[in-house]
Amino acid sequence: HRSGNEEKLLSLLSPLNVNCHASDGRKSTPLHLSAGYNRTGIVSLLLSHGADVGAKDKGGLVPLHNACSYGHFEVTELLIRRGANVNAMDLWQYTPLHEAASKSRAEVSDPTLRNCHGKSAIDVAGNRELQEKLAAEYQGHCLLEACRKANLSKVKKCCVSPEVLNFKDPYSLETPMHCARKGVVESLFRKGASLNEPNRDHLTPLHIAADKGHYDVLDLLLKHGAEVNARDDLGQSALHRCAIKGNVQACRILLSYGIDTLLVSFKGFTAAQVATEAPPPPSGTSVGADIEYQLLEAAKAGDLEL
């Protein structure tokens, strides 16, 4: 089931062992393993020989959880067509949709996928409120993924409501604006996305654009009125973060928009002070001196691997 060797599997398969559970680990069945390893042919073979599509492992996960967790679209569709319960819950009350959404597997978390009875996750949701929540969450995850990939046409398609536009990843608390590049930022801004929404680490889209050296996005955010002096969870502005990394170009852009150079972090440092803490190695030094510099820097950081 892991290697996908169909002939070998056929020679071993019998009605007595098709639903056997591993004696170790998660106590998975062959169907759990083949679904997790994206062996579509093996999954089909096991199902045709009576594999239980609703079998649960030690954590209460069904094979559909495994397929969704790794974003295996074809296996997901196959399991659903063969009767997998799209709302099956594990011991942590996670459904396959939760599993897909929590790991940004937007391609398999589509709540409109239909099972063998022609029903989708939305159809079988208990009430209208839950149906709307499922649909909005899926659209939100699709929008995040489109922003990460700078897929402008998909971004426009996903911007269906203010709720979706400002959707937050449940783990990182990132909004689409945190993930976006220039063309996408323009599109999101025109649709009314929030410019200053902090993520889990209190980083705004401005902090992230500065960190990643996305100068076009940085300039665009500031042009549209992003809060230039926004602070992260350490009380640092984007200027502090760029100064620490020695990102001169980002510093120039921030300074041109009037960022407060005297802003003090929670540790009591200005951007200029953190910039002088770790100076770059002087140019024209020998290889030996450069190694000494790296050694000193590693010693400061407690990093034993040079």
Summarize the structure in words.
With 306 residues, the chain is mainly alpha-helical. The chain folds into two domains: 1-114, Ankyrin repeat-containing domain (Serine Threonine Protein Phosphatase 5, Tetratricopeptide repeat); 195-298, Ankyrin repeat-containing domain (Serine Threonine Protein Phosphatase 5, Tetratricopeptide repeat). Helix content is 49%, strand content 0%. It contains 18 helices and no strands. The protein has helices at 6-12, 30-36, 40-48, 63-69, 73-81, 96-102, 121-124, 128-148, 152-158, 162-165, 176-179, 182-191, 205-212, 215-223, 238-245, 248-256, 271-275, 287-301. Helix 15 runs antiparallel to helix 16 (248-256). It starts with 5 loop residues before the first helix and ends in a 5-residue tail after the last helix. Residues 284-306 have low confidence and may be disordered. This is Poly polymerase.
Please give the domain count.
Answer: 2
Our measurement of the CA-to-CA distance between the termini, rounded to an integer number of angstroms, reads 41 Å
Quickly count the helices: 18
CATH architecture of the largest domain: Alpha Horseshoe
Please name the CATH topology of the largest domain. Answer: Serine Threonine Protein Phosphatase 5, Tetratricopeptide repeat
CATH class of the largest domain: Mainly Alpha
Question: Structural class of the secondary structure composition?
Answer: mainly alpha
Shape: elongated
The helix content is 40-55%
Please mark out the parts with pLDDT under 50 across 5 or more consecutive residues, or reply none.
284-306
Task: Work out the strand percent.
Answer: under 5%
- Mean pLDDT across all residues, rounded? 79
Give a count of the beta strands, DSSP E runs of length 2 or more: 0
What is the string of helix and strand elements?
Answer: HHHHHHHHHHHHHHHHHH
CATH superfamily label of the largest domain: Ankyrin repeat-containing domain
Major sheet size, sense and barrel closure: none
Q: What Rg is obtained from the alpha carbons, in whole angstroms?
A: 25 Å
InterPro entries: Ankyrin_rpt, Ankyrin_rpt-contain_sf
Pfam families: Ank_2 (PF12796)
Keywords: ANK repeat, Repeat
Protein name: Poly polymerase
